[in-house]
Structures
1.
Amino acid sequence: MSLKSLTRDWEPMSYGFLDASAKREIRRKMLKAIAVPGCQMPYASREVPMARGWGTGGLQISCTLLNPKTKVKVIDQGADDSVNAASIRRFLARVSGAPTTLDTLEADLIQSRHRIPEEKLRDNQVLVLQVPNPEPLRPVQPNMSIARQMHADADYGRMWLQLYEQILRAGRVMQGASYPSLVNGRFVMTPSPIPRWDVPKLHMAKHLTILSAGREKRLHAVPPFTRVEPLVFDDVPYRVEEHGALTCTRSGARGFFMNEIPQDDGSSAFEISDSEYGVKTLRQRDGEAVTFGDTWYKHGEMAQ
Amino acid sequence: MAHPLPSVPETRSNATFDALMWALSRPGLIRTLPEPGMDGLIDALIDSECRVHTDDETLARQIARTGAEAVPIAAADHVFLTAFPDAAPLDHLSLGSDLYPETGATLILPARIGSGSRLRLTGPGVDGEESLRIDGLPANFWTRRRALIRYPMGFELFLIDGTSVVGLPRSTEVELL
């Protein structure tokens, strides 16, 4: 054994920004997260050149998975062109040389803040969701040691109580995003602040979803073909946002999740939230040949 | 613009993990490792934060170089076995706890994939059901596994056959046909 055999060759920087030991730790935790769907696994959450709370959790997962052949798509609230999405995409490309794309169908790895694309993901795609607060029990139990015990006991009575109180006070469930969902019949997880519209897309999906919270130093996963059931009462069905009948004012796309844009006269205009789907619709209108993937929602209804 | 190129070990670890991740995500489907054997798994997963048990001297030397602590099987978070004549070591594996399921061990075993006893797999990651043939494991292996795992406690299993790898997470129900 010599000193040379104990050390690695000098490199100007680690490939994919993270050093090898950080990647190994994330790999070990990702395997455990996949093995116990919906269970939050603690990890060290290294420093990345971005403030905590801006997607550092998702970024670390992406940096670990990337190689020069991985096609990366980054979205922020559905849009590929927001500052956060564009910056993360450029960062990932710079540290790894990975090609980037805006098209959901071409991507191998999709890092997303708070949306799942409208086109169905395939069984070789990985969706990385950025998570601000991974603990669904936090609103009902701020002490995380007790919350851990509640997860261990599958003691989710207070989650149901919270929903019941919302129905009692407001006549409906007021939880708009991060709707608590039961994964594989055992762990309640937060699906990250995706709208209610997107939660059914995780149920028995073909793709692998990894949810990572950099500030909170936890990650959890939803493997393919895993049950993800939003918590609902038998007599109060789960309802998604009523966007099925809305039409995008820019592209004319219809039946998908929309951004509401307030107008001067007090009314609202709507724009499709999945920006690349809107762009594709515009291109098709202009006579270009465009390939649309199969979508989860058809005519504004979730396909069964 | 110039961008960093992955080193050879980085490329290998990345490809190894990709195979392991998809093997565990889709139990029963056979994935391909970039190189045969367990060496790649050690490079991709093991470092000084791990406690590892192995019965093989060559692997033990490689593991020692990573800085991982060599421990008896009961204290190990990763267990690499090259000979597995009977299922007794399973009883000593760390299964984690309800509070900390992630402390359950990862067991890596050699096996012959594609021949031998037929298994029916169900659970997360399996589209309906999957069938798989595994040979080279002791006869009572699957009954012991089933008796030990009380979800979410349990252990993860990777079966290695040359460059082929199959992953069986604790969430998978295995039925011996």
Note: The domain at 8-176 of chain B is CATH 3.40.50.11310 (Rossmann fold).
2.
Amino acid sequence: MPDTEWPRYEVFKQDRPNRPHEAVGTVHAPDPEMALLNARDVFVRRPACHSLWVAPQDQVLTMTALEMELNPAWAEETVPEDAPVRTFHVFTRQHQRRTMVAATHVGQIQARTHREALRKALEQGEFTDRPVYLWMIVPADAITGSREEDVESLFRPAEEKHYRDQSYYSGRVFDKKALKRREREVA
Amino acid sequence: MSAFPRTPNTRPLPNVGLPTDPDYEQRLAEFEARIEAGEKIEPGDWMPYEYWRQLVRMISQHAHSEVVGMLPEGAWITRAPSLRRKLILLAKVQDEAGHGQYLYHAVETLGVDRGTLIHQLLEGKAKYSSVFNYPTLTWADVAMIGWLVDGAAIKNQTMLAHCSYGPYSRAMVRICAEETFHYKQGKEAITLYAQGTPRQRRWAQDALDRWWWPALMMFGPHDKDSPNTPALMRWKIKTKSNDTLRQEFVNEIIPELMAVGLEIPDPDLRYDEETGNWLIGPIDWAEFWQVIRGNGLMNQARMAARRQAHEEGQWVREAVEAYARRHQARQAPEKIAA
């Protein structure tokens, strides 16, 4: 069998319920189910995570403000009249701070194509209260997500592994007795 | 496509500008103004060819270093001195695998496939940090790697978190948050040995003797011998030079190593009252270049181990693909429509 590359999936992680999903990076996998498992291993070795979404990258439209400015033709397309209206999730980056996520979920929009969703988002101004530097448009039907009942098996185990956190070592590094005690704790 | 074209004859991505483009000078001025203003350059944004080339070169080497970096320590997972140490080491090696993935993702945003990069590594055509071509002889080496090598890596990565390229900066922020645990567990383990039996103290000192200079070489050649530095600094790919970072690192770590009773293996080491700097003796750059060129103690063994792991994983990849095919044939994957 040829050693070819598997399709790439964008990964969106939700740290806690009622927090937005955030674009954290990509994984490669032969199908969405494996993409979800790979995403868990790559992006959730530590808490917190409540939900993960994966979507094939070729079904995600990513655009920067500069890209749109330099190529105004991005918005031009012929949309078939009978194309069905779908739900698109909208992610934006609206700051220049140092963070570990590319874009944050800000809402949904009904449209027939990715570009139509982006045009509507710009026209309606609902997501552009501050400048948007980066857009990600993800059709809802391209997303495979972890389910509520997966939380226990996918994300909970990492919560017990305190030794993965730097805070576990704080202030005790030079305390020999504490070290010996903690060696015994797991033995 | 080739990952490292040497001359800008072909445009690797539509948004990469070539010096021959009619609007190149104007775009370059705008690009540099954005960087000067502290803005991040995102995938899809206009960027000059040389910025693209330097990022592909640096991030791919960094990704490969994370992957190869699993090997020296991975060799000790079965020989960890306690269950707790085994759990910690397993978690650390898993992190390095994940860090490699974050970084391959960052290179992919520049249009270079993960498969291409992994192929280059397996072919022995890719560079990675020379420090991983030294052997891990005792458990104290594993501990010393955590404290020294990860300590040096964090210094570099904290600087790179300020990188002007968004995806590289984000990978660095994520890595630094996790890597601090690597450094602290190493410091804890060495501290324990340095206060332990005479044999444990001997192991700790021996590990420092062997890892000290390779760790200092991780920061790369002196600024005067680093041809890439001016471009990297001008475009804020790097925000501090090799020598600056190396000096910051020795100033921080020397007092800590001394505090646990270890001796720095440098007869020329002295403290400069005036500047507050620890001044180290000459670094053996001949050794550095030998290791980079593939003649280190473990270069061959590292590549052999990586290739073996890849080949032995072949059946797993095939099984996963077969599962995916069968699964797709039976039922459409469960979708959510939030």
Note: Chain A has one domain: 8-186.
